[in-house]
Recover the amino acids of this structure.
C-alpha cells in the first residue's frame, strides 16, 4: 500500500486556504490556559478548513513560540480573533446567525453519540481545570457531551476539540450531500 | 444548565476499570517520539475504556513524568504493553483475532467519512514525522484515512488517535444496539 508523498497530498497554500470556501464551524476557546492546546486546536481547524477560531479571556494568541510548536504554521492559515470576554464573543456570533453549542458535561446535554447537527455553528471549549464558565454554559443554545466510561473526569481540550470538529465536519458534509 | 460535579459523574475507580468489560479496540503506537502524545492517548483510551495500548519501538512507557503530565493517572487504569517491534506486535494481535488497521494516508485507503467498522480491532498510529513505517502499513488489513482539506500534511498524533477512537467507539456501540 503506497504512502502518499507530500506532493501527492496536493494541499492548499495558506493564501489559497484564506480564499477557499470554509466549513461553517467556529471554535471558541473560553479561557484556555495552555498555549500547546491553542496551537493544536489551530492545526486541527486547518485540516477541516473551519471558518475561524475565537480566543477569549486568558487564552493566548499568536504570534507565540509555544502556539507555533503545535500549530506548525496553522496560525497563518486559520483565521482567528481575540475577545476579552467569552460572553461578548457568544453574543457577536449569535448575531451573525451561528448556533451556540457548549461542549460540557451538564444535566440534559445532547449525547454526541446521536449528534448529527450540521447547521452553521460555534462550539465552545472550556478551561483545562474549570471547564466552561457557568455564564457561558447558560448563554449557549444547547450543551453537547462526549460520553465517557472510564476513570478520568474529562478529555484533554485539544483532543475534545478534534473529536467535535471531526464529527461536525462529517455531519456537515453528509447533510450537504443529501 | 447545571454542570455535573465530579461526584455526579460517577466514574469508575482504577480497580473497577480493570475488571469492567472493555471496548474491543487496541491502539498501537509505532515509534511515537513524544511522551506527551503517549500520555494523551492513554487519557483518551481511559475515557472510552479501550482494551489496551501497545507501545512499540522508541515509544516511551510509564512510569514517566512527561507521560503522567498528560495521562493524569490513566497510565494506572488502561492496560499497556511494550513491544520491541511493531511488526511483532501486529503478528501477535492478528493471532488474537484483531483486524489490523493502519491510520495513514495511502492510495486506496478507506475514507473515515464512511467508516463504520465495529469489529474487534487494533489501530496503528505512526511517528510524528515519518508516520507509520511502510513495513507496518503493508502488514495491516487495510488503511484508514481522515480526510483533510487544509494546508498542513497531517494532524497531531494524539488528536488523530482521539478522532479514530471516538468514531470506533460510536461504531461499536451502534452495532451492539442493532
Amino acid at each position: 500500500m503506497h504512502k502518499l508523498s507530500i506532493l501527492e497530498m496536493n494541499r492548499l497554500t495558506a493564501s489559497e486556504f484564506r480564499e477557499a470556501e470554509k466549513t461553517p464551524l467556529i471554535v471558541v476557546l473560553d479561557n484556555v490556559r495552555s498555549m500547546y492546546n491553542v496551537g493544536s486546536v489551530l492545526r486541527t481547524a486547518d485540516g477541516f478548513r473551519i471558518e475561524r477560531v475565537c480566543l477569549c479571556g486568558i487564552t493566548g494568541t499568536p504570534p507565540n513560540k509555544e502556539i507555533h510548536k503545535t500549530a506548525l504554521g496553522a496560525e497563518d492559515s486559520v483565521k482567528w480573533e481575540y475577545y476579552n470576554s467569552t460572553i461578548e464573543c457568544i453574543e457577536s456570533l449569535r448575531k451573525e446567525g451561528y448556533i451556540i453549542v457548549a461542549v460540557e458535561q451538564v444535566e440534559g446535554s445532547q449525547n454526541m453519540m446521536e449528534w448529527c447537527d450540521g447547521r452553521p455553528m460555534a462550539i465552545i471549549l472550556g478551561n483545562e481545570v474549570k471547564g466552561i464558565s457557568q455564564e457561558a454554559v447558560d448563554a449557549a443554545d444547547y450543551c453537547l457531551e462526549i460520553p465517557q466510561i472510564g476513570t478520568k473526569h474529562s478529555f484533554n481540550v485539544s483532543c475534545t476539540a478534534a473529536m467535535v470538529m471531526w464529527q461536525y465536519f462529517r455531519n456537515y458534509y453528509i447533510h450537504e450531500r443529501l
Remarks:
- Helices of chain B lie at 6-9, 14-19, 35-47, 65-71, 86-95, 134-139, 157-177.
- The beta strands of chain B are 23-30, 50-56, 80-83, 99-103, 110-111, 121-125, 142-145.
- Chain B has a mean pLDDT of 96.
